[in-house]
Design goal:
It contains seven helices and six strands, in the order H-E-H-E-H-E-H-H-H-E-H-E-E. The protein has 210 residues and is an alpha/beta fold. The protein has one domain: Rossmann fold (3-Layer(aba) Sandwich). A hairpin with a 2-residue loop joins strand 5 and strand 6. The longest helix is centred in the middle third of the chain and has 17 residues.
């Protein structure tokens, strides 16, 4: 069923789509923050957002959608300063849901808790939270809807690493875990994809130099 839903959403995507990963985050305790609130852009992240905004300044952006998390909203607000488009907030652009949320990013931390061993049993699904198929499905759905509101202009969607990679791979006709395709997705990066009724015409990747 998921494959059919992906195909249906893909067929509805037309136009120039800019997938933006939010800027670098202030995270002094180095935790997997996931969907936790209170994580804002760092100084570096604000610079990355500025560069991304300048990169898109000449684009005819008529649809600008973003995840509700602070880091994505702050990035989108910076991009919005260059355009007349209002930021539309949509939960489908959220970070992937994970049971590792709030855990420090340390191999020792993971290994010391036996519960994590079971959660990591299937990295292809994955078994620790929202599946890659579910992420891809919601991302294609929101991209199709956002691009339909662009009225011939360009669409910007500000989201998070795994959702951006899953969307990019799906729009390129690649299926499966994100690492089976092009997994590059630095903070502040922009993946630009030109689509015609679900068919990829061209793609480019931009990383802000800060």
């Amino acid at each position: 069923m998921t494959g059919n839903l992906w195909t249906m959403s893909l067929a509805e995507i037309t136009g120039t789509i800019h997938l933006v990963r939010h800027g670098n985050v202030e995270n002094p305790k180095d935790v997997l923050y996931g969907r936790l609130p209170g994580f804002h852009l760092s100084e570096l992240g604000r610079r990355q957002a500025e560069v991304a905004g300048e990169r898109l300044a000449e684009a005819n952006v008529t649809a600008l959608w973003a995840s509700p998390l602070e880091r994505a909203q702050e990035t989108a607000a910076t991009i919005a300063r260059h355009h007349d488009a209002k930021v539309v907030t949509d939960d489908r652009l959220l970070e992937s849901d994970t049971r590792f949320e709030g855990i420090r990013r340390s191999p020792i931390t993971f290994l010391m808790d036996p519960r994590n061993w079971w959660r990591m049993r299937n990295p292809f699904k994955p078994s620790w939270g929202e599946t890659f198929a579910q992420i891809g499905e919601r991302m294609l759905s929101v991209i199709a809807e956002a691009s339909s509101t662009a009225a011939g202009g360009e669409t910007v969607l500000v989201a998070h690493q795994t959702p951006v990679v899953m969307a990019r791979n799906a729009m390129s006709g690649k299926w499966g875990p994100p690492w089976l395709g092009d997994a590059r997705c630095e903070t502040g990066s922009i993946t630009t994809m030109v689509m015609e009724e679900g068919r990829l015409v061209s793609a480019s990747y931009f990383v802000p130099s800060t």
